[in-house]
Structures are given as structure tokens and as C-alpha cells.
Design brief:
- This protein is an alpha+beta fold and about 375 residues long.
- Helices cover about 40% and strands about 10% of the residues.
- A five-stranded mixed beta sheet has the order 6-8-7-9-10.
- The chain is extended and about 100 Å long.
């Protein structure tokens, strides 16, 4: 991070003041020697400054996040949230058919729009040219040095904002993703876990794979609503499988309000690990039973449930992988022994690293004779 000053616990970088993590000198054993006390104070200052730099070093943050990514069949996410062996596996038949229908309808609308634009262009014969003002673009603005500095600062701010948005997406905020039925309730924060705090806002869709309402809801969440609310986690999973595979958690969280054989599909709003609202069979969201959902009704229902958030949590709290765990991984990677280069003796399967020959075995690299033919013939 580029820093210009360090005054009053503030670093100037990324276009504005950056506060250094607080530290204090309390709790130091007064019976220690003065040199030992100074060493403890110096270590606390160093740790505070280092943690601040780690938080605002965009390149280092991006590299650490990249190492923690796992790839599922449909998306890339952080390993603290997703299991590549079970999450993101495929889409159900009703959703695939609904998407194909929407794509076909959209192509027809685009053709009509292009035709209307062509007709408007033919009708509008006036040419409003701005050539007379082009000279303004050729002149240099005053104070180019100061302008370049402002541009650099603004670019750094935008890069950091892009990184924060990317990390939030990697942890499920502002996107709609499919999780395995055995994991989805835990990922939504409904299972007590002292090691991590639950997400602040989750929209959980318990899917009926044969339902048009389910397909239309997932399509709307994926294509529109999730991107409009980057502070909310949107997820889906098979409704019946979820309630049966995680029955103890489901019974405690839903208070027996949802039945696997009766109430699918359902939409669940979850705030801070507690179910705030449930819509069984999507009854309040459809014009008619068995038909597609009404997008406006879905947004209003979720808004009244209090789970549509405009901003994700603090950047430092998104990932559950702690810095000490990352430091341990870095140390283990450095301690990994390097593989020695294998010596090519011509024999397949030989892994010796030093120069050698195999007696009695003729290869492309050796004759296999103890006494060389050249020695016998005196050549």
C-alpha cells in the first residue's frame, strides 16, 4: 500500500485516511527488564501496522483469496463456504426448460427492438454534429501532475472496491447458488456453530424440481434480484431432501411449519441465523397455484421480511479462514521438500537422481555392457 504519512495513527493511502489497528501497552509485567518491556511494545506496534497493511494491500489480498478458491461445476467460491464435491451440481429440469423459454422470448423482443431502432434512424435525417467542439478535447487541462495523482488515487479506490465486490461474490453475497441438501441449512446459519457467526441475511429456496413456480423463482433470483441486493446470500436446494437429510436442524429451525410431502416448494427468509418468515408452496407469490411467481410480489415479501440488504458485511469478516490458518498454510508450503530431478538413464520406471548405468540392460542411453565395445576393439 502506498503511504504518504503516518500521523496520529492514520496512513494516507487509497485516496483517503486509513486508520491503523489500535494497540495498547497495558498488561505488561512490570517486573520485566526495561529491554523486555520495550520489545513487547515494539511487537504490539508491529502487529498493529502489519494487520493494517494486510487489510489494505490489494495485491496480497487478491493472491490470498485466489489460493482459497475452489471450483464447483457451476461457480467458483471460497473453500470456507463451499464444498466442490457436493455443491453447484447441475440444474433441475423445470428450471432448464423455463430458461430456454425465456431466452426464446428475449430473442424475439430483441428483433422487434432492433427493427424499431432502424425505423427511427431512417425517420431521423437531421445530423447534429459536434465537430465544432472537438478543439476542446485537444487542449491539455491545467495541472496535469495533480490530475494524474488524483487519477491514481481514484484508480486504487476502484480496484479495492472491485476486490471487495469479488470477494463478497466468492462468499455467496449478491448471487444465487445451489448447495447440497445436507449442507444448505448449516450454510444458512441455522445450525449452532460457535466458531463462526451466521450470515446477516439469507434467502433460502427449498425447491420442488417439477414446479413451474420454483423454476420461475430461481430464474428471477439469478437474473435480477440477487445482483440488486449485494448484502444478501441467495441459495437453493432440494426441499424434500433438505428436510429429510437434516431433520433435526430443520425441525428446530422451522418449528414444524414445513412438511416435506406437503409444503414444497417454499421460500424462507433468515436473519442472523433465525428464520424470520416462511412462504409454504409459494402461495403468496403466484397469481395462480402452479403458475409462475410474480417478481414484484417476491421482492415485496422479502423486503417486508427484512432480508434484502444493500451492502455486504465488513470486508474483514467475510471469510472464515483466519490469518493464522493462512500463515500456517504458507509455512507448510515453504517447508515442502523439492523433488530432485531424475537422471535419464533410458530405463522406464527408474527414479535414481545420480548418473548410473544398468548392467545387462540395453537402452537408448547405454549398451548394458560392463566392458565397452570400444575398449575391447581399442578404438
Amino acid at each position: 500500500m502506498a503511504s504518504k504519512s503516518y500521523q496520529g495513527g492514520s496512513l494516507e493511502g487509497l485516496g483517503g485516511p486509513v486508520n491503523v489497528d489500535p494497540y495498547h501497552f497495558g498488561g505488561i509485567d512490570p517486573t520485566l527488564d526495561a529491554c523486555c518491556q520495550r520489545e513487547i511494545e515494539s511487537n504490539r506496534k508491529y502487529n498493529a501496522l502489519t494487520s493494517t497493511l494486510r487489510r489494505h494491500d490489494v495485491a496480497a489480498l487478491a493472491e490470498r483469496r485466489r489460493r482459497n478458491l475452489v471450483t464447483t461445476p457451476s461457480f467458483d467460491g471460497c473453500r470456507c463456504c463451499y464444498d466442490p464435491s457436493s455443491d453447484g451440481h447441475g440444474e433441475y429440469t423445470a428450471l432448464l426448460e423455463y430458461k430456454q423459454k425465456q431466452v426464446a422470448d428475449a430473442e424475439g423482443k430483441e428483433e422487434n427492438i432492433e427493427q424499431e431502432k432502424a425505423e427511427e434512424a431512417e425517420a431521423d435525417s437531421d445530423d447534429d454534429s459536434d465537430d465544432e467542439f472537438d478543439y476542446l478535447l485537444d487542449e491539455d487541462l491545467p495541472g496535469d501532475d495533480g490530475l494524474k495523482e488524483l487519477e491514481d488515487q481514484r484508480r486504487a479506490e476502484l480496484e479495492f472496491e472491485m476486490l471487495k465486490r469479488q470477494v463478497a461474490l466468492q462468499h455467496g453475497y449478491g448471487t444465487h447458488r445451489q448447495l447440497h441438501p445436507s449442507r444448505v441449512l448449516k450454510a444458512a446459519g441455522l445450525a449452532a456453530n460457535p466458531a463462526r457467526s451466521p450470515p446477516p441475511a439469507v434467502v433460502l429456496h427449498l425447491v420442488d424440481p417439477d414446479s413451474i413456480a420454483s423454476a420461475s423463482l430461481d430464474y428471477y433470483l439469478e437474473s435480477e434480484l440477487a445482483a440488486k441486493h449485494p448484502g444478501t446470500i441467495f441459495m437453493r436446494s432440494g426441499g424434500r431432501s433438505t428436510l429429510l437429510m437434516d431433520a433435526p436442524i430443520a425441525q428446530k429451525a422451522f418449528r414444524n411449519e414445513l412438511q416435506a410431502d406437503r409444503d414444497m416448494p417454499s421460500l424462507v427468509a433468515i436473519k442472523d441465523g433465525v428464520v424470520s418468515n416462511i412462504c409454504p408452496r409459494l402461495r403468496e407469490l403466484c397469481h395462480e397455484e402452479g403458475g409462475p411467481v410474480e417478481p414484484r410480489a417476491v421482492e415485496m415479501w422479502l423486503g417486508q421480511s427484512g432480508v434484502l440488504r444493500p451492502h455486504p458485511p465488513a470486508f474483514d469478516t467475510l471469510c472464515y479462514i483466519r490469518p493464522e490458518e493462512e500463515a500456517l498454510m504458507d509455512y507448510l508450503a515453504q517447508q515442502k521438500p523439492m523433488e530432485d530431478e531424475r537422471y535419464d538413464c533410458g530405463l522406464e520406471g527408474c527414479s535414481k537422481t545420480f548418473p548410473h548405468e544398468h548392467v545387462g540392460i540395453q537402452t537408448s542411453e547405454q549398451s548394458g555392457l560392463v566392458v565397452k565395445e570400444e575398449t575391447i576393439l581399442g578404438e
